[in-house]
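Next up, a specimen:

>
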Amino acid sequence: MTEVVRVALERQSIEKKDFPIGRRGYDPDAVDTHLSTLADEVEELKRSARRRTETLASTASEQVRAIVEAAETSAAELQRQAEEEAREIRAEATGEAESKREQAAGQAREYVAKVSESTTVMLQRLDSMESELGALVESLRTGSHRLNADLQLLEGNLTEVSEAVAPRPRFESEFSAAPLSVVEEPHERDLFEEQADADVQATEGYDTLVDEPDPLADAPLAEEAPRGTDDTESARLIALNMALNGTARDETDRYLAENFRLDDRGGLLDEVYASVEG
């Protein structure tokens, strides 16, 4: 393997290189010219190498600077994106929390309003029921007073009837010396008993009392109590009580038909059951 001898290729060493003189050698001038040309080329190569080195260094430096700038720009962009995403996430979370809070507050207000409305309606119904029950009690008290008055009137009429049908004395023969005796006619006694039974039966349902003339006396029996607004209110209160106790409408209607004479029984029942069911 041939060993390559490396020498410093400087212009001065090339031009000043001494060669041994021999016969039939190269022309010294031609050699000097060639060496000068060679020295120029070497010098140019060195300058080109230096320029290339400087260019490579500059290029590398520029590339490094570009890479650094790109990295910094990328890092700044990533940071900006991260901050933007963080802001969006915070804003979304805040908006969702606010929406949930408003929704919960709205539901709470709606529930409170419904409870308040239901409570108000219940209190109004209780007040209405209390008023109606008070009116019912007052009506029953009035009916009781009226019944007592009718009973007292019947007792007075019975007394008058008893006096009217009392047995009358019958005189014996004017020639008889025996004292006067009172003889009670059988048919009069039977008539009195029938009249008394009729009066007792009349007291059992004072709503159906009628005026019946006494065939034996002019004293009138108890007249039927006046009907109208009082009976309507009594029927209304009784129907309300039955409806509140869960009585069927048909049964309430049948009871009112049997015990009251009303002009508009169906309308009264509609009003009562509508107020209870409402």
Notes: The first strand starts at residue 169 and ends at 170. DSSP finds six helices and two strands in the chain. Residues 1-7, 168-189, 198-229 have pLDDT under 50 and may be disordered.
